[in-house]
TrEMBL record:
Cellular compartments per GO CC: plasma membrane
Alphabetized PANTHER family for the sequence: IMPORT ATP-BINDING PROTEIN
Family annotation (InterPro entries): AAA+_ATPase, ABC_transporter-like_ATP-bd, ABC_transporter-like_CS, ABC_transpr_LolD-like, P-loop_NTPase
Keyword flag ATP-binding: yes
Entry protein name: ATP-binding cassette domain-containing protein
Coiled-coil residue spans: none
Entry GO MF terms: ATP binding; ATP hydrolysis activity; transmembrane transporter activity
Sequence ranges assigned to domain ABC transporter in this UniProt record: 22-234
Length: 234
């Protein structure tokens, strides 16, 4: 059961190819459970998220926020329905094609940040540049992002020497490296104190104002309030 507020207007920059940055149509997500009815997360769910908008998936723990994020990011297919990225329907495309498109279209920040432990903060930020061998060209941008996020002084540190908040900011810089149309973040304020969480919310708002589409999953009331629109999962 879901409740969605009105679709988001796009105050800055229309979508490149004419469709919403993220378009979910008639999405059903179910998980099979041995010996029981499948667990139904959503049925007939629609979302149009354009550049310039911040949408929050809200709801209690276990209500399905991460499941919708993962479907929207093309990490798993929906049980039924379609997923579109700026006019391109990705449902049914081969996994390697989706992966290549996702790398440029979506910056995804998962709940744990997931930095690679054997790489420094700067090397972690540069990871998305590896497949196109662009680490040299993007090194300056990586440093600028770390600077903007207030962790430039940690560039040479390994993840185990960073605080939770610093790890998350480094992961954010990595998500932004290729300037994706969409930024997705799963519970981005969960491990932060209030002041850091509010700073991060301001950053998400700035990303939207700069023309990104921002999709977050959160039960932080401050983040839910800061969104342009929200889906409340029950
Ligand atoms: N791959 C899976 N197979 C079976 N059940 C799953 C799978 N992934 C998630 N679930 C179940 O689906 C429900 C929704 O999970 P999901 O992680 O999407 O919720 P959530 O709202 O993001 O939770 P949280 O706020 O705790 O992160 C939960 O009951 C979870 O146990």
């Amino acid at each position: 059961m879901t409740q969605t507020t009105a679709p988001v207007a796009a105050p800055h920059g229309a979508s490149a190819a004419g469709g919403p940055a993220i378009e979910l149509r008639d999405i059903t997500i179910q998980y099979e459970r041995p010996g029981q009815e499948p667990l139904a997360i959503v049925a007939g769910y629609d979302l149009d998220l354009r550049r310039g908008g911040l949408h929050c998936l809200a709801g209690r723990s276990g209500s399905g926020k991460t499941s919708i994020l993962r479907v929207a990011a093309g990490l798993v297919p929906p049980t039924a329905g379609t997923v579109g990225w700026e006019g391109l329907e990705i449902t049914g495309l081969a996994d390697d094609v989706i992966t290549a498109k996702r790398r440029k279209h979506i910056g995804y920040l998962d709940q744990r940040g997931n930095l690679l432990p054997g790489l420094t903060a700067l090397e972690n930020v540069l990871l998305p540049a590896l497949p196109d061998r662009q680490t040299r060209q993007l090194a300056r941008r990586a440093r600028d992002l770390l600077e903007q996020l207030g962790v430039a002084g940690r560039s040479g540190h390994y993840p185990d020497r960073l605080s939770g908040g610093e790890r998350q900011r480094v992961a954010f810089a990595r998500a932004l490296l290729l300037n994706p149309a969409v930024v997705m973040a799963d519970e981005p304020t969960a491990s932060l104190d209030r002041a850091s969480a509010d700073a991060l919310i301001r950053m998400l708002r700035t990303l939207a104002a700069n023309g990104h589409a921002v999709l977050v999953a959160s039960h932080d009331a401050h983040l839910i309030d800061a969104a342009d629109s929200r889906t409340t999962l029950a």
